[in-house]
Amino acid sequence: MEHSMGMGLGLGVLTGVAVGLLFVVVLFKMKVLDMTFDERQKRARGQAFAWGFATLVICVAVYGLSDAILGHWIDVLAACILCVCIAVTVFAIVCIRKDAYLSLKERPRRIMLLFAVLAAVNLALGAIYIRNGTLVENGMLTSRACNPITGIMLLVVLAVYAAKYLRDRKETEE
User: Fold this and answer.
1) Of 79, 80, 122, 166, whose Cβ has the fewest other Cβ atoms within 10 Å?
2) Structurally, how many domains does the chain consist of?
3) Could you report the average pLDDT of every consecutive run of 10 residues in the chain (174 residues)?
4) Phi/psi of residue 92, each to 5°?
């Protein structure tokens, strides 16, 4: 029984990755995403990658220590997603602060709308898991925590980007 649950989870993750990659390809084809950056943006993104990577290393170490000290409190998949989401959030915030998050050809409103929709979907799934009682089982966060974790990350990035966008618009109007 446990083996089939693991296979189902693995198949679900693979399906999610495949759908996500297909979604990114469609966004590139529709010209919503255009990863053309100038030299200043490339340097800033390099710094952001360094901050994100350092954050990922620290998060993995903290997770390992917490698991050793507190015991198994979170599913391994959820812990990995948590660490990656924290690192991606750091990367995104550094890029946003240095005007290197979007290329010069991308439209901020489309990206913000996309993030809002993705955050809403992930948080809605999280709410369903909380209501069903499957988010936490036997005192441990399950892999079902991946959706709300991702939704929170998207909301944080969206909030930082929207604040920067509004501040920049206000400065241009003055």
Assistant:
1) 166
2) 1
3) 56 67 60 72 95 98 97 95 97 94 78 92 95 94 95 97 91 82
4) -65, -45
